[in-house]
Design goal:
Helix content: 25-40%
Largest sheet: 7 strands, mixed
Oligomer: single chain
CATH superfamily of the largest domain: Vaccinia Virus protein VP39
Strand order of the largest sheet: 5-4-3-6-7-9-8
CATH class of the largest domain: Alpha Beta
Distance between the termini: 51 Å
Number of domains: 2
Bound molecules: S-adenosylmethionine
Number of strands: 9
Strand content: 5-15%
CATH architecture of the largest domain: 3-Layer(aba) Sandwich
Order of helices and strands: EEHEHEHEHEHHHHHHHHEHEHE
Number of helices: 14
Radius of gyration: 22 Å
Shape: globular
């Protein structure tokens, strides 16, 4: 049973989080505009993070509105509680996986919402915190869990996986062209001594990246490996795949879903889901009458992804890989079969 009160958690590692967010919100104005919400609406921010989107949304909703914010990271929930304290909107912050949103809302008696926003991935607050182990720029435990008490750390994953599994993770989640090479190197090193810190892993990757590869790389050789481990540790694609149909089912007709993603794997999932759910009958054209019953549930608001402006990228380089897709829930109709849809 989920209670909104769990969002009151405002500490991690036993230390109260007092500092302000370091996260700079990506595509703030564009996202809030395309969410198309107004006073009195009920909105979910599925990834509260530094609460930049939440703040702008909460201001729009006003005293009659409701903002429900999710984040797996207790620190994000604690900071958001402070940053959003002056809002008049009815605020509920929940430390939970967004994939559980339908269960959480049902347990609070909420059946539908007017808008949902996802701003996926990791926040600068997590990246800049050495103890959380997300970044190869800081030395710290190789952790990478969004939720500090989740069962699997990146170190445990690295030290317990076979070469095949590591190579699969680096290839699938990092699109690393030398996945097997790094998998072998990391596997061999971890058998001699467990890899426990971000710098141990970083140094290993640097030592085993030939100068000729490095010369051709536009990014740090650690980038893909660290991204892949983070995605695997937090089961990120699985959560996204689970939540999209849940989010759709929670949207009232006319309500919008905004998704900002930071790599092609996430964006591909969103693009495919939006495309499938915006299609009507999918029977073969040879069928004279629709038998599939499939009906469009979404209207695409953005036919192509929206990218941050050059000015935003110059101000906040982290925004450079962001892309946003938006879709709107259509009114519920009878099935194509019931409506006797004909193909001729
Ligand atoms: C890019 S940040 C969001 C930033 C936020 N929109 C802002 O304006 O500051 C992404 C946040 O999503 C959280 N997160 C990632 N996956 C999640 C999941 N499955 N469920 C809940 N929160 C998640 C992360 O902990 C992180 O704080």
């Amino acid at each position: 049973m989920y209670l909104f009160e769990v969002g009151c958690v405002s500490h991690e590692w036993g230390v109260m989080i007092e500092r302000a967010t370091k996260h700079e919100t990506v595509m703030l104005a564009e996202a809030v505009e395309l969410l198309s919400i107004g006073p009195g609406d009920r909105v979910i921010d599925a990834t509260v993070g530094g609460a930049g989107h939440s703040l702008a949304i909460g201001q729009r909703l006003g005293a009659g509105g409701m903002l429900i914010g999710f984040d797996l990271d207790a620190g994000a929930i604690g900071r958001a509680r402070k940053r959003l304290a002056s809002l008049s909107v009815h605020l509920q912050l929940v430390q939970a996986n967004f994939a559980e949103m339908r269960t959480v809302l049902r347990s609070a008696g909420i059946e539908s919402v007017d808008g949902i926003i996802f701003d996926l991935g990791v926040s600068s607050d997590l990246l800049e915190e050495p103890d959380r182990g997300f970044s190869f720029s800081h030395d710290g435990p190789l952790d990478m869990r969004f939720k500090s008490d989740a069962p699997l750390t990146a170190a445990q994953l690295v030290n317990s996986s076979s070469v095949d599994r590591l190579a699969q993770i680096f290839r699938m989640y990092g699109q690393e062209p030398h996945s097997r090479h790094y998998a072998r190197v990391i596997f061999a090193a971890s058998r001699l001594q467990p890899i426990e810190t971000t710098f141990q892993l970083r140094d290993l990757i640097y030592r085993h990246t030939p100068a000729s590869w490095r010369a051709k790389l536009k990014i740090d050789p650690c980038t893909r490996i660290f991204q892949a481990l983070r995605i695997a540790v937090n089961d990120e694609l699985e959560s996204l795949g689970r939540v999209l149909p849940e989010a759709l089912s929670l949207l009232r007709p006319g309500g919008r879903m905004v998704v900002i993603s930071f790599h092609s794997l996430e964006d591909g999932l969103v693009k495919h889901f939006f495309k499938e759910e915006s299609r009507g009958c999918i029977c073969p054209v040879s069928m004279p009458v629709c038998r599939c019953g499939h009906q469009a549930q979404l209207r695409l608001i953005t036919k192509r992804p929206v990218f941050p402006s050059q000015a935003e990228i110059a101000r906040n380089p982290r925004a450079r890989s962001a892309r946003m897709r938006v879709a709107e829930r259509l009114p519920v109709q009878g099935s194509a079969e019931q409506r006797g849809v004909r193909h001729d």
